[in-house]
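1st attempt posting a full record on here, be nice pls
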Amino acid sequence: MKFFGTVALCACAFVWGALAYRGNLFPYPQLRSAAVALGALDLGREEAAPRGGRSARKRLETLGYLQSAPVEADAAESGVVLANRQLSFDGLNLYKETGVSTAHLIDNAGVEVYSWTMDQGRWIHAELSPDDGALIGVSEEGFVFRLSADSRLEWKTPARAHHDLQVRSDGSIWALTRRDSRWPERYGDQPIVEDTITVLSPQGELLREISLLEPFRGSPYEYLLPAAEPSTGQGKAYELLHANHVEVFDGTLAHRSALFREGNLLVSFRTLNAVAILEKDSGRILWLWGPTNLSVQHHPSLLDNGNLLIFDNGYDESRVIEVAVPEGRIVWEYSAGPSFFSVWGGSVQRLPNGNTLITSSAQGSVFEVTPQGQTVWKFVNPRPVDDGGSATSRPSRWNIWRMTRFPRSALKFLDR
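the predicted structure (as tokens):
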């Protein structure tokens, strides 16, 4: 009996150890942090290879955000190439191509109903104000700006902004930004890139700045940070987090969980293959999920049911997943093999009819799928890249950072 009891205890310990490793549960973080402190573990080299493997990850880390995509199997596709009126959600679609300074609003047939153009530089992404038709966006030069419905630049604020922002109901703007910093205790005299959130007033005035790195210092999640070795894309500075999305919770789902209290932050950290929820006042990490499950993900968003919808880029093929919070259980997944792969970017939107709108940024395409995975609408960027007619270049089209679909009734500015 003693023998069988010992075997059962060992089996339980093995199972819990596997769950602790995969879910970052006690005692895995504590043991791992202790190993790091003793020098027995090099976090930058020992970490589990995410989906796609280490070699694929290293290839990806050498890439920047490309602006155009080669046209291959779908070379003949252009504009709206599929529209199932019975199964798709009818609305108006906002998108902007990379490499240009124009945003387009099209209907589900691909007909343009509105557009905006900014003469003073290109921008990465912009959010639409449904009432007055203004765009609040992030420029490639790092400015946060506001463009009126008639394409007048109302203001721009230098902020070293990048990737994404959110405009809250009070008009405040929460933008991903960065600053130069150091962490002598961990990285010596090596400069690092510290990701931040900059909060601006509706008029573009600086209100506050929030560090996204500080919550990791001394926390159970500090072990996720890369070891002291150069990172690509930021010169001599280490890019530790590479935040690529922020969402500020409005509190409407606080009854489901304290995680969703008003003001708490949902942030995606590409370098860590993780998404996290931060407490609004202290910045403390309340919940983190993704390592060994995600690979350089983008655009997590909180759904009405309390789950998260995430674009998981992967290293060979992409997928979209819905994750239960706080359990960290994948409850829905869409994938299509190698034909669906965005090496960077990517966005997702759960539509009112339950379908999901997916932007495959690096492929310059957007498609809508049902909960069963049936594609019922597809758009391929019709604008080719003008390469001057080079005989050696491959044909390509401009990429799309994000497409957002609005119910027609939501865009009040169109009624003026």
